[in-house]
Amino acid sequence: MSYAASAALQAAVYQRLRASDALDVLVGDAIYDAVPPGTVTGTFVSLGPEDTRDASDATGDGAEHDFVVSVVTDAAGFQTAKAVAGAVSDALVDAALVLARGRLVGLWFLRARARRVDAGETRRIDLTFRARVEA
Fold first, then answer.
1. Which tens digits make up the pLDDT trace of 46-75?
2. Residue 101 placed within a domain
3. pLDDT, position 1
4. Domain that holds residue 10
5. Distance between CA 123 and CA 114 in Å, rounded?
6. Residue 123 CB burial class (10 angstroms; 0-12, 13-18, ≥19)
């Protein structure tokens, strides 16, 4: 197994989301690798946790990265959050990302979890994707 391509994968995902015209319309530049300190209002997208496991085979080192992209909004209802989550999914599923290190074999949507947080004041959707990377 190699975790060596993890930073390159994260950078490529971030750049892909920033380059999405649909996300630009919906959230502008509110796409974060690290959410700014303090209270962030409006709607934003944030890169989240990642779990990685060995996916090496006879051809070489590899890893499967399950990573979360979160959509958070203080807009009423889930409509805004779901529109943004759909744009995130459209930007990433089957994307041909070019990594600075390693090679992306595939990128798939795994699941999503939508919920109210902060005493129901905020809506949050956590989308989990799986990326298969060869070192």
1. 999 999 999 988 888 899 999 999 999 999
2. yes
3. 66
4. 6-74+88-134
5. 7
6. buried
